[in-house]
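Problem 3 from the worked examples.
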Amino acid sequence: MNDTTIIQRGTRVHCILAHAGEGVVTAVREDPNARNTYVIGLPGLERVRSTGQHLYDVVFLNGHFSQGVPETIFRGVQWHILERLAEEEEIARLVAAHLQLRAEDEAAAERRRFAFEVERDQLKADPANKHLTQGDDQSSGLLAAKNIRAVLRRAFPGERFSVQKRSWGTVSIQWEDGPTEEQVRGLVDRFRSGSFDGMQDQYVSEKTPWNAVFGGTKYLNLTRFHSPALITRAIAEVMAQLGDIGVGVSTAEDYAAGKLWDIEVPGAHGLESLIRMRASRLAG
């Protein structure tokens, strides 16, 4: 039906896309970018035939509107032409509903823009942030990395952190023992300017007023290492709990070299896993 039906103002359609659904064609016009088809004939008698491609405007029952849908897409698998034309009264009502929805969306966008600017200006003027550098780098990670160092120095004096700007707007934070990952993430997560949406299989930018003032990073990688001293304590406690299981004296160097990962412990996790879990508990 999609290939032969004449489409006109009032034609009812259905689109499977999430924003669409059932709708009504409000306008049909020639596609100015459509190419002509050349039909080869005898020399001097070549003919030119127009493809007859059109563009379609559609207002949907949910208030959304699609303008200039090419005919090649309109007659594709995402669209279906329905029975019975819509009356002009219904078209006018749907168009009015769309205009109302657009006005509400524009008003909401303006409120969000105003709130964004107010919060951004407050952050700039707040003396509590005077130890941070202001700028307009909202996603590369350069400014964010600089300010993350300042945040961590103030929050955890005496602790050593490695904060590095990596490729693709990534900032990597590494440290040994000390604060937990949750404590660090609670301070630095505000520098993220988006996240990966697994449902859409794409990165979604979510720049905030904080990003607009103090910088943003697309990805934050946090890695907390355990020191040899802590691993040594964990090994001693695990071995004391296990007793004699036929394993020689293990050291932090053995753990770091991966020599313990394949040592099985009867009725429990492997030895390396037990040591890692005990070290995490000791670290707090």
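Problem 4, a separate protein:
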Amino acid sequence: MKCYVINLEGSSDRLRWFTEQEPLSGIEILRVPAINGSHLEQEERMTLMERRRSDYPVPAGVLGCFLSHRRAWEWVSDNEDQWAFVTEDDAHIFKDAKMFFESTDWIPDDADIVKAETSQEVTELSARSMPAKGTFRLRKLKAAHRNTAGYFIGRDTARRLLHLTASYCDPIDEVLFNPDLGISSNLMIYQLDPAICIQDNDAPGRIGFEQTIIRKQEPEPRTPMPFGIKKVVREIRRIYRRKIRPRFLQRLQISLFKKVPFAGDP
């Protein structure tokens, strides 16, 4: 299985660090040149912004990240391999994760994507799981689970996503892993539990890389706070989503609500 790593021009130190990780030894790594959103012409940016389907802010860095992952999908779709691993150059790969790259026999037949990363935020997973490799399990991902530092994707799925996102321009992690945007709800997405991948910012052995494609200093527009009846409705929905619904589904043993651990956590 090939590994497609998204890397911005001029970030050779990050690429070198990424490729020297032990689990990737012997794995074919292809550098996908990242797209710098701040280098796009204003007219092109405005055209892309008209494709937004959500209220999430899309500053230049987020736009570049979206386009960079679509470029990676193009590369995957043009390759003969049935499965590929798409990642970003600040991803920490679990030291014993090589077995997941050496074969695809652990990937379910109905899978479109297997999310290999954790954002370490609570998400909704299927209560039932199936074996992957070793002690790792696979669970169906049923709610938003953000970040796109590492995921296995089928070649046919990459082609399908290129078609589905041709008229989109939203944060890539929301597009892929948030059913509310309408794309991932049409895909079969599994989550590795525990995860074998984590972004440097959340990693236990953090290097301290600065964000490149998405820069922290980029201003993001603030969403006006609701008031009156809108605020009441929002609070009721929030309590239902975070408290009532999870308890009900867990009692029925339908869903599991938890933070997916990183396999490399101490």
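Solution to problem 4. Residues 229-251 form the longest helix (23 residues). The chain has seven helices and twelve strands.
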